[in-house]
Amino acid sequence: MAKKKIEWPRQLRSLGLLLVSLVLLYGLGNLSLHSTAEEVDLPLAETVSIDYAAALTELQTSFTFRGEPINPRAVMALEPWLSDQLPGAIAVDVEGSTADTNQFYADVSVNEAGRVIAEWEQQGDRRFAGYLPLGQLSDGTYVLRTFINTGGSATFPSVMLVTCGLDSEMWRDGAPRSRLTLTRRGELFLDMGYSGDIAIAGQQITFTPAPRGDSPMTVEVAPL
Question: pTM value?
């Protein structure tokens, strides 16, 4: 007796072909992802050898990293937006904010007065920021006279207090990574064009005259 040939409906045949195609695509996709994961090597923690204890000492004594001044854009990252009252970021990674990084790229120079200046292009404008180290309080806090240009002709000056530290974080491979930090301790905004004298003694900062007034003003900073 001859076997009867089974004819599947056209819709079922089409569905079967679609399922086979999806299975094949899924398999190829997994192979591709597996291959890519094997070919890409994520950077491991601390690929550059740094003596972090010595780097912290350098930072605390000269406000430099690897012999170069701290990038003014790193200091600028601790500033609040001009339209805001409070700061957002209060700490920055020194090694991750050098002038050769993408986020903090800048041409950094030091002028005759000792000001460290960073210049860069942003949205078609040439911008700059800088600072002048005025000294340190008795607890090691740096006192910086800063100035920022966010485009146009206006420059916004202030006096910022920052401390230097060394701690660690979990890195991409799960291992700890040492990091040098700058932490904001406070800031006093100056009027544009302020040319008074700023003196440091112990934990005190004296402005002569006061940023907004004729008499001297002394600020006492609580020690760490």
Answer: 0.76
